[in-house]
Design a protein that fits this description.
There is one protein chain. This protein has 241 residues and is an alpha+beta fold. Helices cover 27% and strands 23% of the residues. The protein folds into 2 domains: 2-6 and 17-163 and 221-240, Structural Genomics Hypothetical 15.5 Kd Protein In mrcA-pckA Intergenic Region, Chain A (Roll); 173-214, no CATH class. The protein has helices at 44-54, 116-121, 173-184, 190-201, 213-218, 224-240; strands spanning 17-24, 33-38, 63-69, 82-90, 109-110, 127-133, 140-150, 157-162. It has an 8-stranded mixed β-sheet. A hairpin with a 6-residue loop joins strand 6 and strand 7. Helix 3 (173-184) packs across helix 4 (190-201). This is Plasmid pRiA4b Orf3-like domain-containing protein. Residues 18-201 form the Plasmid pRiA4b Orf3-like domain. InterPro entries: MM3350-like_sf (IPR024047), Plasmid_pRiA4b_Orf3-like (IPR012912).
Amino acid sequence: MATSNSNSSSKIPQPDNYVFHVNLLEITNPIITRTLSIPAHTTFHSLNLALSTAFNWSTNHEYTFQTLSTLARQPPDLLPPRPNKLISTYEPLPHPPIGIPIPTPPTWTHSSNITIQDYMSTRDPSHNLIYEYDSSADGWEHLLTFLSRATPTTHITCIDGSGHQAAEDCGGPEEWEELKEAYRTQVPDKKQMEKRWWYERFCVNGEEGGLDVEKLNRGEWEGVGAVEQRAQERLERENER
């Protein structure tokens, strides 16, 4: 994706890309996934832009990356994995509240100062990445699972996916499930009609015609071409600033 240039030089041999499968957590019926091929020197800031493009988020909200460590002695069906903040990254809000100092956690690293290669070179096999978008409200958590290495490229590419994009600012995974049901029901009640009205008129990544239930139920997604086109449009807007 053009929005996620890794800024690596093409004059010297580059290390292979890292391929990650990305799953939007707590979403079912159908699931929402994307698969990205990521240049080794991509910063986590650039990765955020690429993930936002692939999942059609607006980038209007804060985000974080964290590693999750599942301990061998911890029963996975009883306790969730806990964040390991030693490899966490963050992006501060551009305009913090006036007069309120917001200290940077000492174990956190700014997302522009660490690359995928930095992370992978110290990676524990039991660690996975969690990318959270809009953590203060909707709380969209994405699980990034490493799959393989791939031929180096100059920018991140989305190579596969499934599932219709979730509605930004709808309230999170539970509200997204309710919004889907509002379109699936043949006789929507007042609350469901209000959800449809909001999605079609005010949702930043909504659709004027509403959700196509048949495509939604089949788990169809917009495709690689649409993601690449959105990436190009975002890059052009950024260059105009």
